[in-house]
Amino acid sequence: MSIRILPFRQYSDHDVVNLYALDNNSVLDSTTDVGSGDAGVFVTITDGNFNNDPVTYQTNSYLGDSSFPFLGTTEMYPEVNLKVNAATSGQQPLGITLNQTAKNDENGEKLLYNPTKQTELQAVLPGQAVPIATKGIFTLSSSGFDGSATDYTIGAPVQMSYTNPGKVTGAVSNHGHWTSGHFGHVIGTGSRTNQGPTSDQFLGDYIVLQIK
């Protein structure tokens, strides 16, 4: 997992959606991997069919071998049917993920069998709903946006990256009008440096976004 979203954030639980799971193709194999399963990814809805049951039991190799005759069925893994995935250029995101979605910890052990560690790592399992904040103030590290902090103008909106799904880039102004797909506003930028001999975990550029 890359650190895309930094600790400074302000949001209300009333603005957090807990209805959608990350698309299975984007789930991280390990909490040390990097991808669309990270926390701090801007996502858009890929399946919003509320006619389906909220959760169904499906066949999933994450459980291991479930084909033994006495089990009766291989459809035993609960999975949320509503899905999201990393937003791409031109899309209006639903919000930003607050947890990572991953199968295994840093040692390759399934988080499915260690719920305590799953909670400590702020992770959800494949098929579980991932919390998505739709409003608030969030600090993105350089892993969450294109370019450097100096590329962003205070008060200007952002839009989804042209090349990196789930990341943002500065919105483009055309004769005083912002191009379609922009959202939120940059309310601050900065850069963290090491202090003394201690290496800063959150070293580097950051931007602070307000999403309404």
The SS-based structural class is mainly beta
Determine the fraction of residues in helical runs and give it as a percent range.
under 10%
| Total E-strand runs | 19
**Beta fraction:** 35-45%
Question: How can the largest sheet be summarized?
Answer: 6 strands, mixed
What does this molecule look like?
The protein is mainly β and 212 residues long. The chain has one domain. The protein is built from one helix and 19 strands. The protein has one helix at 115-120, and strands at 5-10, 16-17, 21-22, 28-30, 42-47, 55-58, 77-80, 83-86, 95-97, 100-104, 123-124, 132-133, 136-141, 158-160, 168-170, 173-174, 177-178, 185-192, 204-211. The strands form six sheets. It has a six-stranded mixed beta sheet with strand order 2-12-9-5-8-3, with no helix packed on it. Helix 1 (115-120) links the parallel strand 10 and strand 11. It is globular, with a radius of gyration of 19 Å. The relative contact order is 0.21. The model has no long low-confidence stretch (mean pLDDT 92).
What is this entry, summarized?
By secondary structure, the chain is an all-beta fold. It has 1 helix and 19 strands.
List the helices and strands and how they pair.
Layout: E1 5-10, E2 16-17, E3 21-22, E4 28-30, E5 42-47, E6 55-58, E7 77-80, E8 83-86, E9 95-97, E10 100-104, H1 115-120, E11 123-124, E12 132-133, E13 136-141, E14 158-160, E15 168-170, E16 173-174, E17 177-178, E18 185-192, E19 204-211
Parallel strand pairs: 3-8, 4-10, 10-11
Antiparallel strand pairs: 1-13, 2-12, 5-8, 5-9, 6-7, 9-12, 13-19, 14-15, 16-17, 18-19
